[in-house]
Design goal:
The chain is α+β, with helices and mostly antiparallel strands. The protein has six helices and four strands. The structure holds flavin mononucleotide.
């Protein structure tokens, strides 16, 4: 497998078609992504899948609740709410990834980083199967209402909601910052030049 090509060509997908995503495929990809991530330690995380009309509706309602409750946007036209709700319910599947945290900051960071590594593997493996993903961490996903729905515990952290679906057209890639632009040399005197 040409992994450089896969990494280079994978794109975040924001426009999905209506072909359903099989839950079994998502589980298979998650297992494969975990196996490809080298880690001596156990990586502590859990996932939740919203793929039915009912579960996507519940997810949409929880995402919208803070907006609806907010006095400033109380007047939010029904049309806008429906647009957001439809955007969530039209997406074939939502994979929610929750990492465990630890009182020890280093342990916590190591675990979170490992979960992120696994999920990047997941996105690449999904791409190879023609399945598009969008790793979503928007502030809308950080609400009390959503955390309640996910039963997020004090020792847990939401890594992201991965929107999943097949797509008709992949977007073009964005320009990347060249490494030289973020490059400094530690001088012998201790400072950076
Ligand atoms: C940790 C992480 C969080 C992200 N959160 C969001 C997000 O909240 N909203 C979004 O539109 N894209 C999000 N993305 C996707 C990036 O914006 C996307 O990777 C970037 O636009 C580059 O596009 P590409 O994946 O097609 O190369 C996230 C990606 C990562 C790795």
């Amino acid at each position: 497998m040409n992994f450089v090509k896969t990494i280079r060509e994978r794109r975040s997908i924001r426009k999905f078609n209506s072909i359903p995503v099989e839950q079994e495929l998502v589980i298979e990809l998650l297992n494969a992504a975990r196996q490809l991530y080298p880690s001596r330690e156990e990586v502590a995380f859990r996932s939740m899948y919203a793929g039915t009309a009912d579960s996507k509706e519940r997810l949409a309602v929880s995402m919208l609740e803070p907006l609806v409750k907010n006095r400033l946007v109380k007047w939010l036209p029904e049309k806008v709410r429906d647009f957001v709700r439809k955007r969530v319910t039209d997406i074939p599947g939502h994979l929610i990834i929750i990492a465990s945290t630890d009182a020890d900051r280093r342990k916590s960071d190591m675990n979170y980083a490992a979960v992120c590594g696994i999920m990047q593997n997941f996105q690449l493996l999904a791409w190879l199967r023609g399945l598009g993903t969008l790793w979503d961490t928007e502030p809308m996903m950080q609400s009390k209402e959503l955390f309640e729905l996910l039963k997020l515990q004090p020792n847990e952290r939401l890594v992201g909601i991965f929107h999943l679906g097949y797509f008709d057209k992949a977007p073009r890639s964005r320009a990347r910052t060249q490494a030289e632009k973020k490059w400094t040399i530690l001088s012998s005197g201790g400072g950076a030049i």
